[in-house]
């Protein structure tokens, strides 16, 4: 799929099926390429990723369901429905920020202390979007989530890695919904 076609087609798909549309190794290659070539401020490269397949993917979303039930006493049926949609997918990409790298830059350049926090968010956004678009380009559906989950010790995630977001992916199992697009004339100024 051509790059801008993948951008145009990318949507938040929350109902997924556990069907590999490409080999798992190809997903890992998308992630590796994105990690190596997505820009970061001062080339800090503090973005980190873990890719979960199989039982690890399922355990992650089982933990999200358990935490949601423990923390919410009201009607959480919509939340549980969404978590089930993610759990039914093929895998999850976990996005982290290595706080040790950020702290090192903040110590080297204290006058930019707060900027490194902001740039870290921008770095995350770019990486997430590159991976999401890469998944779309090979035929996977995905969405970006920010829910509380349990990280298992056997996944060997370093203590300095702070979890930022989760991207469950799989075969699309819901119809695409049309999205309203604000006319470009309201969003763009061209100065010559």
Summarize the structure in words:
Strands 1, 2, 3, 4 and 5 form a five-stranded antiparallel sheet that branches. Helices cover 44% and strands 16% of the residues. Helix 1 packs across helix 6, helix 2 packs antiparallel against helix 6 and helix 5 packs antiparallel against helix 6. The protein is an alpha+beta fold and 192 residues long. It is globular and about 45 Å long. The chain has six helices and five strands, in the order H-E-H-E-H-H-E-H-H-E-E. 26% of the residues are buried. The model has no long low-confidence stretch (mean pLDDT 94).
For the structure shown, list the relevant keywords.
single chain, 192 residues, alpha+beta, five-stranded antiparallel sheet, 6 helices, 5 strands, 16% strand, globular
Which spans have pLDDT < 50 for at least 5 consecutive residues? Answer: none
Largest beta-sheet characterization: 5 strands, antiparallel
Report the order of strands and helices.
HEHEHHEHHEE
How many beta-strand runs? 5
Helix content bin: 40-55%
Provide the gyration radius in Å. Answer: 18 Å
Structural class: alpha+beta
């Amino acid at each position: 799929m051509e790059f801008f076609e993948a951008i145009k087609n990318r949507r938040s798909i929350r109902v997924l099926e556990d069907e590999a549309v490409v080999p798992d190794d190809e997903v890992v290659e998308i992630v590796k390429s994105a990690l190596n070539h997505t820009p970061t401020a001062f080339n800090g490269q503090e973005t980190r990723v873990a890719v979960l397949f199989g039982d690890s993917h399922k355990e992650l979303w089982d933990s999200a369901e358990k935490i949601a039930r423990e923390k919410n006493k009201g009607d959480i049926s919509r939340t549980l429905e969404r978590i089930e949609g993610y759990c039914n997918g093929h895998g999850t990409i976990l996005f982290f920020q290595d706080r040790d790298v950020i702290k090192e830059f903040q110590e080297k350049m204290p006058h930019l202390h707060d900027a490194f926090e902001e740039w870290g968010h921008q770095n995350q956004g770019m990486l997430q979007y590159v991976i999401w678009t890469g998944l779309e380009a090979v035929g996977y559906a995905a969405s970006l989530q920010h829910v509380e989950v349990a990280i298992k010790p056997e996944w060997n995630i370093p203590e300095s890695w702070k979890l930022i977001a989760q991207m469950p992916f799989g075969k699309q199992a819901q119809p695409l919904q049309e999205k309203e697009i604000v006319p470009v004339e309201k969003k763009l100024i061209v100065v010559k």
